[in-house]
Every structure is written in C-alpha cells, then in structure tokens.
Amino acid sequence: MPEEEQRDSKLKQLGRSVKEFLYGMAGHDMTRFALKTRGSMEHLFILITMGDLLGIPILPPYYSLRLLPYVVPQISTWKRRMLRERDLTDALA
Amino acid sequence: MSLAQVFREHPNRRYIEFGGKGGLGKTTFSAATAYWLAQQGYKVLVFSVDPQASLSDIFERDIFGQGAVEICPNLYAQEIDADQRIREYQNEIRQKILDMYGLDEVPKEIEDYIQATAAEPAMEESAIFDAVVDIVVSGDFDYYIYDLVPLGHALYYLSMASVYDEWIDKITALRTEMQEYSQVAAILERKKESEEDQILAELQDIKQRINTSSGILTDREKTAFFFVVTPEEMIILDTQKAATLFAKYQVPISGYIVNRVIPPELAQQNIPAYLRNRIEMQNKYLKQIDETFGVDVVAQVPEFERDITGLEMIGRVAAELFGGEA
User: Fold this and answer.
1) How many domains is chain B partitioned into structurally?
2) B255 contacts: CB under 8 Å, gap ≥ 6
3) Does residue B158 lie in a domain region?
4) How near does any CA of chain B get to the CA of A62, in Å?
5) Percentage, residues of chain A above pLDDT 90
6) How close A28 gets to chain B, by Cα (Å)?
7) Where in the sequence is the domain holding A11, given as residue range(s)?
8) What is the pTM for the complete model shown?
9) Does B118 touch chain A if contact means CB atoms closer than 8 Å?
C-alpha cells in the first residue's frame, strides 16, 4: 500500500529530524569539544614523539619512526599550529 | 662448582651472556661455550651485539650482516650489521607511507626526517637492540649466547630498556586518553564504533617487544650471566664495581671465569726472572679473586701459546672451560 508506506517514511523522517534537532541542541557542542580536545592531544602527541621535526630533540627516534606513517597527514597542520605566532586574541578563542 | 655443572643443574637457563672489560675474552668464551653446547647436541646461536664484533675473526669467516651462519653442525653465529638494519627499517617506513597514502614518493619534509634519524647518536644501539629482540623471540634455537659489548656499553644497553619502557608508558597513557575522547565523540554522534587507533596498537607492540627483551636479560630462571676477569688488580676492582651496577639492574650473575692464567707448572721449570715475577704477581691476584668472588668462580682458563682463532683452538678453550667433558 503506497499510502501507508508514504506515511511511514514521513514518520521516520520526522523522527530523524527530532533526533538531529535534539543532538544539535545537546550533543553537538559536547562532540565538538571532545573532538577539539582530541585534536589538541594529537598535536601534543606528535610533539613528544616527533619533536625532532621542529628541532626539539626527542629521546628514542628509532621507535618514533614506526609511528611516523600514521601521522603523515597531520604533520603540516601540526607544524603550522606549533610554529604560529600567538597574541592576546588566542586567549579569547 | 664447575661451569659444566652450572649448565647441567640449570637446564632452563637458555640465554647465556658473557660480560667484562674489553679484550678479556668475552668473544672467546662465547664461541667456546657455543661450541661445547653444540657438541652436546644442542642447537646454539652465538651472536654479537657489538658494532665492532669479532665473531668473524674468531671463526675465521666473514659473517658480518649475513644473518645466522652455520659454522659447524648445530653451531650458528651471527653478527648484526646495525647500518644495514637501519637502512632496511627506513625503507620499511617509507614503503608503509607510500602504501598507506598511495603516494609515488615520500613528501620531502618526511623524507628529510627519516634521513636525519639515521644520524641520531642512539640509533645504532637501538637498531641492534631491536635486532636482538627479533633473534631471541624467534625461538629457533635451544641456546642463545650473547657476546656482549664491554662493560660500560652493556650497562647503557640494559638501561636503554628501562628508558624505552618509561617513554612508551608515558605516550601510551596519552594515547589511551586520546582514545577515550574519540569514543565519547563517537557515542555522541551515535556511530557504532570508533576507529581503532593504529598508533596505540603499534605502541603496545613496541612495548611488548621491549619487555620481552629486557625480561629475558633479567630473568633468573632463563638467563645466566658470567663475568670474565683476569688476574690483574685493575680488572678485579673494575669487575667488582660493575657487578654492583649490574646487580642494580637485576642481572642474574651466575659466576666468574678467570682467563689468561699463566700455567703455574711453569714455575717448576727453569724460566727467566721476568716470567717468574709475573707468576708470583698472578698468584697474589688469584688469591684476591678467590677471596673476592670465592665459590662463584666457575672456571679458570690458561693463557694459550697462540691466538684463539679457528674451531680447533675454540675446542681447546672449551675443554679447559668445561673440564675436558666435551
């Protein structure tokens, strides 16, 4: 029955919208915060394993090399963030 | 107790290490012990962790960087080529980057970093350390005999394990915390599962390797460590100091072997005063060794009339070392 199916899909759509609305109100900010913290830690992690890339001597580079392939995509954003000049507005962000 | 007895009474000690100052005969005894054990029917690997290894010289064969080379039935010898190992390792990393991201060449910045690491001072030792892990975890042999580096270096080698261990612990903790944030985000976004953190997996693998290696070095059940000394004052003092330091790293010291003893029978013969003096001096230090190390002295090996190279001479040393029970 096409009519019933149509009603069903509309109901589903409504349900999804409500869910997304609620997520946007309550969850989204928390998710963003969790991911932002995760991102900062990622950069900290690269710093303490691959600090040599910035000229900061780091203890055992032998095993750091094993981790290198996994951080390749992050290296350039990491460098930019680490070497960026900072000013007062950073504190407000 | 004789050395042969030590081996018989502790059949589980399958990792044998010889330590001592440079030039006292660590390589000689490593080779002789390997030879004796091979004669007893065990499959033995003697390998060197010294970048300036001399196993090639003693076996009169170039085995440097060729993996485990069969010297005679049951007896294998290996000299690790650190440079080669580093090169292979770097290539592995490069290949992994190319495969993971489907690149044709490694980005310049990354390539520079990979090349720069080869120049790091600890790189060579780390590479050897890592190669040793591969060797000992393979389990292909009944006995593994470490021809160790001279004392100071050996301590560095031992401490490296604990330094690595701490480093790994710290970054693993950070990585685990990062994982938690990913999971929180994943739950909030109602994803079924967060991506598995490959770095964390890699770290855990590294940690396990380091622990295996340092665990073996300090395992009283599986490992025997012998100090090589000669009847000379400085050597005795240095060995005492080293023994204290080694004890701090929980290295199980199983005994001392006295090398280069001038045969005392010579004193009965008509010998020049020069040699007579040396024998007298040696007697004094042998007494001192007896007082210092006492029952822990498991063997005395004479000074031979020629260099120890080739299997025949190694066999003679083994006969002295193990009381002719070969």
Assistant:
1) 2
2) B1, B3, B6, B224, B226, B227, B296, B297, B298, B299
3) no
4) 6
5) 1
6) 8
7) 2-92
8) 0.81
9) no
Chain B residues in contact with A50 by the CB 8 A cut-off are: 113
User: A41 and B178 in contact by Cβ < 8 A?
Assistant: yes
Are residues B266 and B283 both part of a single domain? yes
Distance of alpha carbon B297 from alpha carbon B254, whole angstroms: 9
Sheet holding B69-72, edge to edge: B69-72, B75-79, B44-48, B143-147, B15-19, B223-229, B253-261, B297-302
CATH of residue B69's domain is 3.40.50.300
Q: B212 in a domain, yes or no?
A: no
Identify all chain A residues contacting B176, using CB atoms and an 8 Å cutoff: none
Q: Whole-angstrom Cα distance, residue B291 to residue B284?
A: 11
Q: Do B142 and B43 sit in the same domain of this protein?
A: yes
B230 with B315, same domain: the answer is yes
Partner residue facing A59 (CB), from B109, B167, B175: B167
Q: Distance between CA atoms of B54 and B150, rounded to whole angstroms?
A: 12
- Examine the domain organization and report whether B249 and B291 are in the same domain: yes
Number of domains in chain A: 1
pLDDT in tens, B46-66: 998 777 778 999 999 999 989
Q: Are residues B90 and B230 in the same domain?
A: no
B45 lies in the same domain as B95: no
Residue bearing the bigger pLDDT, B326 or B205: B205
Q: B58 and B12 share a domain?
A: yes
Pick the more confident residue, B134 or A26.
B134
Q: Which two tokens stand for residue B26?
A: 């660590």
Find out whether B26 and B280 touch, Cβ atoms under 8 Å: no
Chain A CB within 8 Å of residue B201 CB: no
Structure tokens that stand for B103 in this block? 């690149």
Chain A residues touching B123 at Cβ < 8 A: 61-62
**In this structure, are B95 and B239 located in the same domain?**
no
DSSP B16-40: EEEE-STTSSHHHHHHHHHHHHHHT
Task: Give domain status of residue B42, yes or no.
Answer: yes
Residue B167 lies inside a defined structural domain of this protein: no
Q: What's the complex ipTM?
A: 0.74
Q: Which residue is closest to B189 within chain A, CA to CA?
A: A31
Minimal Cβ distance to B171: which of A34, A38, A48: A48
